[in-house]
Amino acid sequence: MSLNSTKREFAEATTTVSIDEKNLVSSTSVKETSSLDDDEATEEKKEGFFSKYGGILVGGSAFISDGFQQGIPSIANVLLSAQYSTYTTSYKTMFSNSLLISNIIGQVSFGFLADRLGRKPSFAFSTALIVIGSILCACAKSNSDVGLFWFLIIARGITGTGIGGEYPLSATSAMETANEKIKSRKKLIPFILASNFPISMGVPMACIAFLIVLAAVGGEHTKHKEAIWRTLFAIGAIIPLTIFFFRWKMHHAESYKNNAIKKNVPYWLALKKYWREFAGTAGMWFLMDFILYPNNIFSASIITVAIPGAGIQKLGEWQLFLSSFGVFGTLIGCVLINYISIRKLIICGFILYGVLSFIVGGCFEIFSKHAAALIIFYALMNLVLNAGVANYQSIVSSASFPTSIRGTAYGISAGIGKAGAAIGTSIFTPLQQKHGKKSTFYLSGAVALIGAVVVYFGVPDYSDKDLDFLDEEFNDYLLANGWNGEVGEFENKRELVQEEEIDSN
Q: Which parts pass through the membrane (predicted)?
């Protein structure tokens, strides 16, 4: 059904059709007098809490895979370094970056699939890649050390492609369900608890899993280090499987059913209209990931400065302590969002992170002699970032674009962010080796302040609005520019045609 033909048919029909805040509603007398029967009403009441929040939670919960996989590199790098003398810095960097680079492929490609194929079918492919890649890592084998390292790097690439796909799929489905079930600003906290909260929980979960497995194989001086990293990868395969059934049972939100464009997508018109929003969200992602991922990955090296000679168990315990501040930051962000706009919170988070980074860089020699001071400031940086931009980037990226291009725009923005993570990780290592660890904090501080400027000029804040206005605005824009294509899923279009035929009779 084309936009132009639909518009003409609706204008000529005796039955008028209008769009309210959530659904396409007919104003016929039949619609006005119809109501749910007693059984349907009872069933609706029974759905209750899960009907309202379950879809949001299920849609976004896969983000925990990303958080867990983020926590693995720093632990695995320590274990592999202890096990293999040939595991050099270059392999560490490639191992860390393999996930990040493949994330870009997954985010861009699955963002496209999310809009064209649908959120639900695409979930199956992303889950399969995560499971296959994690199993390959757990079972990695080669006749040489170098061969094993490359096996792990390639397998992590497969995992990363699936995890990258989770970003646009989880965020768009969770946001659309939240927008449908919960009005305006009240939808933000459930969305955060279904998106960034699982990410922030993933890294501590990786640390906890490491400490449990370490204790199970003999503790600090175990000779079975290989069993530890293999088990962690295996757990990474289990996590997405636990929620796949529930995700497969979920349905597309009405906004997707009514506004999806699966053929002849007007990307050029979309770019002309939303280029500023896209530049803002993509720039925000790039700068945030540029500092977030390297600091997560190199947290172990910071601990070794604060606590010289720390064993792998002590490193795991302190990493758990540091990463837990990300969880606290997420929860603090859920409180602040009730009083301050998202845009201001992101800007303040970037600025505070920049200030803390400059303090740590300037006082690094002093802090390195006082372990508590260095670790506390490093933890505060983690808290501030998660209470600010890391908490809201998914909201901004999924709430700045209409349904028909939401997955694509989100995926490309997030992909650019992961490019920033890969670049940051590649820069931090040689910078740290040449100019010392304090230089990385100066760089982080400067990048964070640039991030505040980018958000101020380029990121919109629609948190107080029902997002259906974006679809209406975009559809009107397409009509005004002469675009004539099909809108809505096939099943939904067929239902609308049937309704029109019934009404005309």
A: 123-143, 149-167, 188-215, 227-248, 290-312, 318-338, 345-367, 373-392, 441-459
